[in-house]
Structures are given as C-alpha cells and as structure tokens.
TrEMBL record:
GO molecular function: heme binding; iron ion binding; monooxygenase activity; oxidoreductase activity, acting on paired donors, with incorporation or reduction of molecular oxygen
Keyword terms, alphabetized: Heme, Iron, Metal-binding, Monooxygenase, Oxidoreductase
Entry's family note: Belongs to the cytochrome P450 family.
PANTHER family on file: CYTOCHROME P450 YJIB-RELATED (PTHR46696:SF1), P450, PUTATIVE (EUROFUNG)-RELATED (PTHR46696)
Protein name (record): Cytochrome P450
Gene3D superfamilies: Cytochrome P450
Length: 404
C-alpha cells in the first residue's frame, strides 16, 4: 500500500459557493469588437498599465459628463492626486486607531441582537455593519432618519431591464419605470443621507472623505456621485464577502476551528484565500488608449488603440499557472509565487487597486471572529443570485440560528 508523499490540505472544498454555470479557462480572445482577458498575467498587466490603458466606463449623459468623474473613474495625474489625498483615510494605522473600537462596538451590538432574537438574516447584519463602517469613513453620519443600509440596498439591488427589451413597447415602458424608481431612490438617499452630511461638514469639517471633497471644491451632485461610488465599491462588496466567507466557515468545521484559533495574520490569510476563490467584483472594463501587446500560450495578441477590454477577475484568480493545482478549491495554505498576493486580483491592482482593501478585511475579520464564536447553524440554503448592474454575486436569505 502506497501513500501520497504530498499531504492534501485538509480544508480543500470541491467548488466555489458562487459558481454560475461552467468556469472559463484562462486565456485571451476577441469576441465581436471586445477583448476578453482571463489569464492572471494578462489581467494584471492591463491593470498596471496606466500609460496605455484607461477606465472602460463611458456615458452619453450630458449632465453626468459635465461632472468631475468619481475617483475610481479618473486616470492619469488627476487620479494620482486624488488617490494620494484620500489614502490617509484607509491606512492600517488609521483603521486601527480611529475605527477599530467603533467596529468592535458595532459588532457586539449586532451579536447581542442576534443572540436575543435567536436567529437573523446574516445578509442584513453584514449590510448594516459594512454601511455603518464605510459611512463613518466617508462622512455619512448625519442622516435625517435611520435605515441608510436599507436605502442603499434598494438603490443598488439587482434587477432591471435587459438591453434587448428596448425594442418593444412593453420593454420601453418597463425601462422607463425602472429609471423613475431609480431616480426616486437616489433622490431619497441624497435628501436623507448625503445633503445633511454636506451641510454639517460645511459648518464644521471633519477628517473624512466628504470634508476633503468640499475642500477640493466639489459640488453637491459630485459628492453624491462619490458617495454612490463608495456605497458600491465599499459597502456592498464587503457585505457580500462577509456572507460568503461565513458560508464557507460555517459549513467547514475544521476550517472554522483553525480560523478561531489563529492570530490576526492567520485569520486574514484564510479570508484572503476565500476572497481569491470568491471575488465579489467579477468583471472590470478597460479601454486601450494606445496599442497594447499581450502574450499568452506562446501567442502574441495586439489590442489596438480604442478597443474595449473585459477583465475576468474570477478566472484570472483561478489561473493554475499562478495559483497552482486545484485552483477552484479553498486552500489557505496554498503556496504562491513571489509577487502574487493571497487574494490574487480581488482588490484589483496598479493605480486603481481598492484603497479600502485593508479596512474591508479588518472589519470582516472582527465581525466574523465574533460571529463564529457563537454556536450557530445555517437554516436552509442561502439564496445566490447575480447582480448584472454591479457584476457581482449577491447572497440573500442567509438565516443563521443560535443553538441552545
């Protein structure tokens, strides 16, 4: 009888929780007039090429194009200046010194609510946590009424009308109704949450993003756009990650025990591997400002100036050429080559790498470490859907129950 000389990681799981149909193979190909990049090397190269590559989002809305673009849609010197200015709000030292106690207190409040009720929807708890933490950093702390988490959830919830519906009358009516509802929800968010925060900081500036934007001469509408950006890129993504991480940890008792027994560095390693496997932002758009040359599998691909590119983060994160064997399994002890971060490209890379990466992992860890210390079980199966507007998964109806 022979034994495998290489012991198998005891935490391997057979697949992603957020798998949607067949997984793609890493590569580069042209579909119509759009280039699809799926290899880790190609995606990383494009994300780091700030000279020849620009953000992919465009708009024909005259009102929007007259506004300063949100920081994540800026490029060049303008973007570098803004990123440098806001970086101080997200450093590990700032998170630890200014926000950790708040995160800890908020987590305890949510745990008390859970234990008293006996059960709760984890997707609701994680949304409340992520919204309140990000709101503190951004400066959305003067709302006229509670429930900002619900207002943001409704504003950014999935659904909508497919492009092919535009051709018939019923489709156009549905689209008009959706746009009207969206404008009403955005107006409510502005009136109840954003405008009061702007007024308060005009009177007394704070050490937060809104105060910084006012100092830069941003008007109310431009600040609203920035707040929506932080709601999408910070609040919603962290909410979904907490849910999917809890899903893995609650269903894998051995992994849960290692997570609870580990120090912060060890716990973060586990969370980063979950994020590598389950990136919330699955797709990024880019546009070639100049010709871009990429190689894959011995083939050279020349992407011409003006071409659009879709960067497939999910597939790039599971590129076996970089992350090794069994790339679609969860393995916190996965050996990675130098220069490859444990979460791979889940926070992006280059000039547009997510500035709130450390904050997201830190608050997720504080919450999950406290949550998983409770004797919990999952009731039923969480509902998994895909939000086409945000190009990310959503975990809902994730009921957890405290066992007696």
């Amino acid at each position: 009888m022979t034994t495998d000389p290489t012991p198998r990681c005891p935490f391997h799981e057979p697949e992603r929780k957020t798998a949607f149909g067949a997984e793609h193979d890493p590569g580069i190909d042209l579909q119509g007039d759009v280039w699809h990049l799926r290899s880790y090397a190609a995606v990383k190269a494009v994300l780091r090429d700030s000279e020849r590559v620009r953000q992919g989002a465009t708009t024909d809305n005259v009102l929007v194009t007259r506004l300063r673009p949100a920081v994540i849609f800026q490029d060049g010197a303008e973007h570098r200046e803004q990123r440098t200015a806001i970086a101080r709000f997200f450093t590990p030292k700032t998170v630890q010194d200014k926000h950790h106690a708040f995160i800890d207190h908020l987590t305890e409040r949510l745990m008390v609510r859970l234990t008293r009720a006996g059960r709760a929807d984890l997707s609701d708890l994680s949304m409340e946590l992520s919204v309140e933490v990000a709101a503190r950093v951004v400066g959305l702390t003067d709302s006229l009424q509670p429930g900002m988490d619900r207002r943001i959830d409704e504003l950014l919830s999935g659904g909508g009308v497919n492009a092919e519906d535009d051709g018939d009358l019923a489709g156009r009516i549905r689209r008009a109704l959706e746009q009207s509802r969206g404008l009403w929800k955005m107006s409510s968010f502005y009136r109840v949450d954003v405008r009061p925060a702007i007024r308060a900081r005009r009177q007394k500036p704070q050490e937060d993003v809104i105060s910084h934007l006012l100092g830069q001469g941003y008007n109310d509408l431009e600040i609203l756009v920035e707040c929506l950006t932080y709601a999408t890129a910070g609040m919603v993504t962290t909410r979904e990650f907490i849910s999917v991480a809890a899903w893995h940890l609650l269903e894998n008792e051995e992994l849960r025990r290692e997570y609870l027994a580990g120090d912060r560095t060890e716990r973060h390693r586990i969370l980063h591997e979950i994020l590598r496997l389950e990136p919330v932002a699955s797709t990024l758009w880019r546009r070639a400002e100049q010709d871009v040359t990429l190689e894959h599998g011995g083939v050279t691909h020349r992407i011409p100036a003006g071409a659009r590119m879709i960067l497939d983060i999910r597939t790039a994160n599971a590129d076996p050429a970089v992350v090794g064997e069994e790339p679609l399994t969860l393995c916190p002890h996965r050996p990675l080559p130098g220069g490859v971060q444990a979460q791979a490209l889940s926070f992006g890379d280059g000039a547009h790498r997510c500035p709130g990466a450390f904050l997201a992992i830190h608050e997720s860890d504080v919450f999950l470490h406290r949550l998983l210390s409770l004797p919990l079980r999952i009731v039923g199966t969480p509902e998994l859907t895909f939000n086409e507007m945000l190009m990310s998964y959503e975990v809902r109806d994730f009921t957890v129950e405290v066992q007696s």
